[in-house]
C-alpha cells in the first residue's frame, strides 16, 4: 500500500519550503483570555491557554465533547453517553440517547433570535445579481419543501438524491430532508448520467430533486436531461422533483413534479422530527482505490457539532461576518462549510454558482468587495490558475473586508500560498491550509486555532484541531514518536465528525480505514511532522488521484477505459500538473489485431470517460503500449509508470522483478514521443 513515491515528493516539498514567520491574532494582543475564546473552557480545570485547551480536548475527550455538545447544540432530549467507539469493529457512536433535529439547530433557533439576519447569499452566475435569503425565509422554504416531500411519500429513513447546482433550493432540500428525518445524497452536478445512476441505485433512492437547467460560466447545462437518462436505469426512482433555475421549459413526464408550483401549495410550518444522534444525516459518495465509489455515511449530532466548532475556530468566524466558501455543495466542503457549519453558528454563508474566471479572472475579488466577504475559503487549483493572470485582477477590487483566507482539497504549493497571502490578503490575513476529507466530516489539521501570534508556515496544515490526535506510522505499523519524521497519517482516537460507515458495506469501511493500522483510523494520506511538530501533508498513499481537488480512483477510471472497444487493459497514473495539481495519464494496451489511430482512440476514450464519470476525469494523455510493465505475478508496476510520467527515468529503482524489462524502454520511448522532452505544455 505504501509507495515510495512520497518520500521523494517530500524532499522536494520541504526543501522548497520558504519558511516565514507569520503573526496572527494580533488583535487579541497579550490580553488573550481563554474564556472569551471558548466559553466552555472556563469549566475545564487547569486550562488557561490554547495548548492547554488542546491537551484537555484529547486527554479528557468525554468531558470536552460533552460540554461543547451541551453548550452548542439544541437538544430535544439530552444524551446519556458522550462516546461509544471501538476502532477494531469500526464502531463509532457519539451522544447516544440524545435527540435533536439538525434543521432546528441550523434555522429555527436563529429565527427566534434574529429572523431577519441574512442566512444565505446566493451569488448567481451573473455578477451583481445576488439574492439574499434571511433565516426566516430559509426556514419557510425548508418547511414547504419538507411538507412536499412528505406529501410525495418520503418517510423518515428514506434517502433522497439531490442533483442540483448551488442554489437556495438545493440547500433547502438538504435541510428539508434533515427536518423530516430523511437522509440526503447530494451528487455533484458535474457528474455524468451513469455516475448519477450508480449513486442513485446504491443509495436506493426513490426520490430525486433536480433543476431544469443549470447555469455556470455563462453556459446552460441540461441537468434534467441528465437525470432523465440516469433514471432510465434506476428502477427504484418513483418521482423527480424539478425546480426551475432558468425560464426554459423541459419535457416533463408523469414521474416529474414541478417543485416550486407544488411547494407553494404547502404550509410554511413543518414539524421537525426528533432524530437520534446516530441516525443518518446524509450519504456522500467519494472515490476510493476500487472501481466503485463509496457512500460515506454521516450522522446527526456529531457531524453538526464538529462542523460548527471547526467553522467557528479555524476561521475565527464571528457573528455578523460573511463567510464565503466557493466550493460546490456536491462535495463535502460544501456540505460542511457552506451549509451545516455556518448555519449551525447562525452565520451568513455565500453560495457561489459561478467559476473563478467568469466573466473574468477578477470574479472572486469583485464578489469579495460587493458582498463584503470576511472569510474566503477556496481551492489551491483556482489560486494557481488566477495567479497566472497577474495581480491586477486582484488589486482592482477592495479586499479590506477579508480577515482569514482558507485553502482546502489538495496541497497548496509555496508559490500559490505566498500569492494568496501577499496579493489577495495584502499580507495581513492569516492563510489557513486546512487538511481534512469526506471521511473526517470537518477540518482536522489547520494552522488555527492556535496560541495568539503563533507562526504560520506556508504550505503546512500544521496543528491538529481540538480532539484530534494524529499519529504517523511507518511501513511496519510502528508509531513514529519523534519529530522530523514521515509516515502514514493516522488518527488515534475518535472524534464526533468522523464518518460512521460506508452505506451497505460496513466491512469495506473497517477494511479500508481500520485494518491497515490496527487501533488507528488510516487517512490514506502520507504526512511529515517537522522538527517543531508541525504537520505537512504529502499526498495520497493509495491509488487515488487528486484532480483539481476532486478525488478520482485509478481503478474507477481503468474500469471505464477497459470497456472501450479494442482496449485489452490499461493503467491510469496521476502526474503533477501546474494548475490541476494532478493530471491523468493513461497507458492503454490494445487487443491483438486491433488497429486504431491514436487520436481516434483518445477521442473515444475521452467521450466514454465523460459519459461514465465526469469531465474532470478525462485523461490528459493517452499512450498506447504493447504491454504494461508487470511483475512476474502479474501486478502492474505503477511505481515504474509514475517515474516515467514524472520524467524521473533515472530513478526507476529495482527492475529485477519485472517480467519483461524491455517493456519499460518502450514505455519511455512512447512517453517521449507523446509529450516531448520539454516541459509540460
Ligand atoms: C475536504 C476534501 C480528501 C483528500 C485528502 C488529501 C487531499 C484535502 C488537503 C489535502 C493536502 C490539504 N487534501 N485537503 N491535501 N493539503 N489541505 O478535500 O475532501 O474530497 O474527500 O478529499 O484531499 O489527499 O485525503 P475529499
TrEMBL record:
This is Acetyl-coenzyme A synthetase. Residues 108-494 form the AMP-dependent synthetase/ligase domain. It catalyses: acetate + ATP + CoA = acetyl-CoA + AMP + diphosphate; propanoate + ATP + CoA = propanoyl-CoA + AMP + diphosphate. GO terms for cellular component: mitochondrion. Residues 53-106 form the Acetyl-coenzyme A synthetase N-terminal domain. Its EC number is 6.2.1.1. The gene is LOC109879626. Belongs to the ATP-dependent AMP-binding enzyme family. It comes from the Eukaryota. It comes from Oncorhynchus kisutch. Residues 556-635 form the AMP-binding enzyme C-terminal domain.
Amino acid at each position: 500500500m505504501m509507495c515510495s513515491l512520497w518520500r521523494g515528493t517530500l524532499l522536494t516539498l520541504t526543501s522548497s519550503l520558504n519558511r516565514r514567520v507569520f503573526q496572527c491574532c494580533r488583535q487579541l494582543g497579550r490580553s488573550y483570555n481563554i474564556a472569551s475564546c471558548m466559553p466552555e473552557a472556563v469549566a475545564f480545570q487547569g486550562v488557561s491557554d490554547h495548548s492547554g485547551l488542546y491537551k484537555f480536548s484529547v486527554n479528557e475527550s468525554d468531558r470536552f465533547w460533552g460540554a461543547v455538545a451541551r453548550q452548542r447544540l439544541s437538544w430535544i432530549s439530552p444524551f446519556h453517553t458522550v462516546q461509544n467507539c471501538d476502532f477494531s469493529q469500526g464502531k463509532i457512536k457519539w451522544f447516544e440517547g440524545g435527540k435533536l433535529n439538525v434543521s432546528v439547530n441550523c434555522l429555527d433557533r436563529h429565527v427566534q433570535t434574529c429572523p431577519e439576519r441574512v442566512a444565505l447569499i446566493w451569488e448567481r452566475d451573473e455578477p451583481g445579481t445576488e439574492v439574499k435569503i434571511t433565516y426566516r425565509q430559509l426556514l419557510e422554504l425548508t418547511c414547504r419543501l419538507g411538507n412536499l416531500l412528505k406529501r410525495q411519500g418520503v418517510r423518515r429513513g428514506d434517502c433522497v438524491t439531490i442533483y442540483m447546482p448551488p442554489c437556495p433550493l438545493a440547500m433547502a432540500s438538504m435541510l428539508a430532508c434533515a427536518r423530516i428525518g430523511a437522509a440526503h445524497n447530494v451528487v455533484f452536478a458535474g457528474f455524468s448520467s451513469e455516475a448519477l445512476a450508480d449513486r442513485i441505485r446504491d443509495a436506493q433512492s426513490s426520490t430525486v430533486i433536480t433543476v431544469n437547467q443549470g447555469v455556470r460560466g455563462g453556459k446552460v447545462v441540461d441537468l434534467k436531461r441528465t437525470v432523465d437518462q440516469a433514471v432510465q436505469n434506476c428502477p427504484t426512482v418513483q418521482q423527480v422533483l424539478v425546480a426551475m433555475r432558468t425560464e426554459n421549459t423541459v419535457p416533463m413526464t408523469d414521474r416529474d413534479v414541478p417543485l416550486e408550483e407544488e411547494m407553494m401549495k404547502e404550509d410554511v410550518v413543518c414539524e421537525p422530527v426528533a432524530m437520534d444522534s446516530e441516525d443518518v444525516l446524509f450519504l456522500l459518495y467519494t472515490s476510493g482505490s476500487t472501481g466503485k465509489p463509496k457512500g460515506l455515511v454521516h450522522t446527526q449530532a456529531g457531524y453538526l457539532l464538529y462542523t460548527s466548532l471547526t467553522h467557528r475556530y479555524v476561521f475565527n468566524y464571528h457573528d455578523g461576518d460573511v463567510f464565503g466558501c466557493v466550493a460546490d455543495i456536491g462535495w463535502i466542503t460544501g456540505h460542511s462549510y457552506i451549509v451545516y457549519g455556518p448555519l449551525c453558528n447562525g452565520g451568513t454563508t455565500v453560495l457561489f454558482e459561478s467559476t473563478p474566471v467568469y466573466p473574468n479572472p477578477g470574479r472572486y475579488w469583485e464578489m469579495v468587495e460587493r458582498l463584503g466577504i470576511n472569510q474566503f475559503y477556496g481551492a489551491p487549483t483556482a489560486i494557481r490558475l488566477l495567479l497566472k493572470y497577474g495581480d491586477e485582477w486582484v488589486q482592482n477590487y477592495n479586499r479590506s473586508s477579508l480577515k482569514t483566507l482558507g485553502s482546502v482539497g489538495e496541497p497548496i504549493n509555496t508559490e500559490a500560498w505566498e500569492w494568496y497571502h501577499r496579493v489577495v490578503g495584502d499580507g495581513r490575513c492569516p492563510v489557513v491550509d486546512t487538511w481534512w476529507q469526506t471521511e473526517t466530516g470537518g477540518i482536522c489539521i489547520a494552522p488555527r486555532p492556535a496560541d495568539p501570534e503563533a507562526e504560520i508556515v506556508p504550505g503546512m496544515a500544521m496543528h491538529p484541531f481540538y480532539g484530534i490526535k494524529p499519529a504517523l506510522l511507518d511501513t511496519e505499523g510502528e508509531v513514529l514518536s519523534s519529530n522530523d519524521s514521515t509516515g502514514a497519517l493516522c488518527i488515534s482516537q475518535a472524534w464526533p465528525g468522523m464518518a460512521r460507515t460506508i452505506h451497505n458495506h460496513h466491512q469495506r469501511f473497517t477494511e479500508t480505514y481500520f485494518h491497515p493500522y490496527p487501533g488507528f483510523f488510516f487517512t490514506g494520506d502520507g504526512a511529515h511532522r517537522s522538527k517543531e511538530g508541525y504537520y505537512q501533508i504529502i499526498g495520497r498513499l493509495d491509488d487515488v488521484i487528486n484532480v483539481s481537488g476532486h478525488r478520482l480512483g485509478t481503478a474507477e477510471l481503468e474500469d471505464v477505459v477497459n470497456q472501450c472497444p479494442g482496449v485489452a487493459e490499461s493503467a491510469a497514473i496521476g502526474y503533477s500538473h501546474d494548475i490541476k495539481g494532478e493530471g491523468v495519464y493513461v497507458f492503454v494496451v490494445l487487443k491483438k489485431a486491433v488497429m486504431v489511430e491514436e487520436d481516434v482512440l483518445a477521442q473515444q476514450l475521452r467521450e466514454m470517460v465523460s459519459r461514465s464519470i465526469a469531465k474532470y476525469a478525462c485523461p490528459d494523455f493517452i499512450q498506447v503500449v504493447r504491454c504494461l510493465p508487470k511483475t512476474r505475478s502479474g501486478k502492474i508496476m505503477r511505481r515504474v509508470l509514475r517515474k516515467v510520467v514524472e520524467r524521473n527515468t533515472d530513478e526507476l529503482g529495482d527492475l529485477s522483478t519485472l517480467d519483461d524489462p524491455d517493456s519499460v524502454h518502450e514505455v519511455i520511448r512512447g512517453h517521449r514521443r507523446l509529450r516531448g522532452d520539454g516541459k509540460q505544455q
